[in-house]
């Protein structure tokens, strides 16, 4: 019997070795690039106009990331379509860590429920980095409106032409929170869409609308300045920034709790090394004393960089708001 020739085996090993070398050569720059990250300016996209919580928080975060990672972080506002324009831009961006998203909970959990043909999937198109913070919405009216408290607002709403308040809203999540107020307390809303919380505040000040169920950072200064009235907050506990404003639960509706949150996300496919670096930096920033104090001043509670918990929160909130939308007979538009 003839022994099998070693030549085919050696040839196969040479081919395999060449293939492995090619793979290593092509992979090595990616690893080096991830380790060097960030080596050029990073863009943080916000899906709303300047002045709202996401914009304010993104700018605070950008300054801290720039300080920590020694690179420029730029905030870019891409407002419109309940933040879907900005979110979709990031979902389709190169997953290299140089285009990030600061998204409202609405952009990730209520747009899928209330918007037809949403061009991105919150659970499939993003990598979670950090839950930046949670905060209440504030039931807000112009100082000129003849109501002194939440109970009077409920009664006032029943005297309007169609039994509804013209309510300014910048995002679908605020619509659904307002609808939980409606089902709980009986006040009805006619929702009018704006491109950002700052623009809703302008509408309130100008008398275009009668109410706004708005993020606390967007209204605090106007409330403290006496130009707007804060009648209630939507969280289970009072806001440290607005300690005199009662919770809806306190006002005779026990168990009511509807917080809003903001998150830092990256496009799906971003490398594990880049994500780890961003999560570590964000986690440290959210514990930084100066950052915590600034967030508390805005009525926000800092979050964390537990990406797995954030993924679960997105999924559970989608389930919660789906039920609210169904009960309110809100259809995708």
UniProtKB/TrEMBL annotation:
Signal peptide (UniProt feature, chain positions): 1-34
Keywords, in A-Z order: Signal
Family annotation (Pfam families): TctC (PF03401)
Iron recorded as keyword: no
Family: Belongs to the UPF0065 (bug) family.
PANTHER family on file: BLR1237 PROTEIN, TRICARBOXYLATE-BINDING PROTEIN
Protein name in the entry: Tripartite tricarboxylate transporter substrate binding protein
Protein's organism: Variovorax gossypii
């Amino acid at each position: 019997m003839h022994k099998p020739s070693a030549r085919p085996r050696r040839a196969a090993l040479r081919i395999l070795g060449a293939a492995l070398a090619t793979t290593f050569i092509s992979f090595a720059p990616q690893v080096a690039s991830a380790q060097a990250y960030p080596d050029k300016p990073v863009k943080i996209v916000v899906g709303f106009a300047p002045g709202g919580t996401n914009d304010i928080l993104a700018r605070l975060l950008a300054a801290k990331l720039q300080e920590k990672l020694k690179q420029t972080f730029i905030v870019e506002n891409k407002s419109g379509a309940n933040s879907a324009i900005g979110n979709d831009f990031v979902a389709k961006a190169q997953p290299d860590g140089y285009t990030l998203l600061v998204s409202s909970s609405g952009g990730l959990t209520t747009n899928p429920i209330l918007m037809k043909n949403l061009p991105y999937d919150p659970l499939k198109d993003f990598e979670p980095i950090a839950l930046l913070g949670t905060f209440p919405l504030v039931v807000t009216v112009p100082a000129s409106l003849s109501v002194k408290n939440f109970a009077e607002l409920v009664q006032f709403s029943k005297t309007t032409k169609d039994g509804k308040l013209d309510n300014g809203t910048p995002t679908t999540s605020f619509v659904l929170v307002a609808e939980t107020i409606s089902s709980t307390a009986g006040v009805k809303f006619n929702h009018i869409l704006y491109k950002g919380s700052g623009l809703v505040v302008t509408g309130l000040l100008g008398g275009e609308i009668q109410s706004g169920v708005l993020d606390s950072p967007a209204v605090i200064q106007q409330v403290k300045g006496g130009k707007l009235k804060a009648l209630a907050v939507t969280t289970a506990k009072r806001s440290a920034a607005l300690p005199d404003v009662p919770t809806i639960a306190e006002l005779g509706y026990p168990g009511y709790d509807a917080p809003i949150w903001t998150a830092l996300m990256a496009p799906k496919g971003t490398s594990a090394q880049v994500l780890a670096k961003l999560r570590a930096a964000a986690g440290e920033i959210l514990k930084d004393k100066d950052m915590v104090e600034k967030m508390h001043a805005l009525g926000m509670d800092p979050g964390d960089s537990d990406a797995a918990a954030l993924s679960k929160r997105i999924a559970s909130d989608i389930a919660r708001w789906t039920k609210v939308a169904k009960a309110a007979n809100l259809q995708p538009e």
